[in-house]
Amino acid sequence: MDETVLPTIEISGTRRELGRQHGEAAREQIRDSIAFYRQSFQRASGLTWDEITAQAPRWAPLVEDYIPGISDELRGIAEGAGVTFEEILALNARGELSHSNPFVEDGAKEGCSSYAILPEASGDGHTYCGQNWDWLAQTGSTVILLRITQPGKPTIVMQTEAGQIGRHGANSAGIALNANGLGARFGKGLAIPQPFIRRKILESTEMQGALKAVFDSTQSVCTNLLITHREGFAIDLETTPARHGWMYPTDGILVHTNHFVAFVPEQIAASYRPFSVNSLWRKPRLEAGLRKLRSETDSGAVRGAIESALRDHFGHPNSLCKHADDREDMGDRYHTIASSVVDLTTGDYWLAAGPPCQAEYRRIWNIYQETTAPAAVAAD
What we know:
CATH superfamily: Penicillin V Acylase, Chain A
Oligomer: single chain
Distance between the termini: 6 Å
CATH topology: Penicillin V Acylase, Chain A
Number of helices: 11
Number of domains: 1
């Protein structure tokens, strides 16, 4: 197969400088993303690109109030990429636009299998976290790896789609975020798109700020957020436009996929069915794989056991290591875009591009080191 390399981009400075550097470095990927979502959003929401960009400014005051100054970063991305501010706003609302019309009452279906492993469950006594990020197969060429350094805030190492200011990763304060969709959507009116909530979590210096970023926000989609701290703490939040549910690790392991576990929202309880039925086996399969870590004492062997668990093919192609299902329409084919293993104790961030059975995990950055030479991350 042709080798695919995920770009590693380092940006630093003020909000505007961060955005401009992001836009310039990922100009091609951002334009590819716009070209893809121009068609994808119309199929999903019934809105043309012109209609979306005309409505997109309605998000601007919401996100600016939530993260003061973030509009400067969005404008910087637009300037660097040579596109419009409205188009960048639309890219950052892709979770809201990908499966419905967010401008009316009407769910976003982002797959993923996230995990946290506390010291009592890992043979080397380290804290680990990560996920298999499952999303539309056509978007793989738009994924980038960002290292963000900004004054007065933790350095962030993040996986995201080009042009989006937040998705999942870890920061130099030892806080990591992994996330997966829950499918359901209910409630009225516009709310804060997920990339902004996730970015605010990753800009937090301690757990109080990370949790407040979630509980102080309003949202229009149901999303699962797994937050891990290097000092051996993890919490899983099933978030909705109304109330949230939460869970803690069992015997040091916490896993979540794409169905409600802590609770089912009252608004959908009478008719609830998981949007992704394979979520019902991915969760226990990953838990079983991660329980094997207790017998490994060497950190390399522990990481190898995590990687092996993430490569599980039970239920293939709709497995933990997900592959595009040829039985689905082209617009509904998902696969694992990237798979991560983050050692929050040492700070080493390992990544495999594409389905992990087809690629080696490579150390790209250390979240605690100030200067690094990132390695290329490739998938065969």
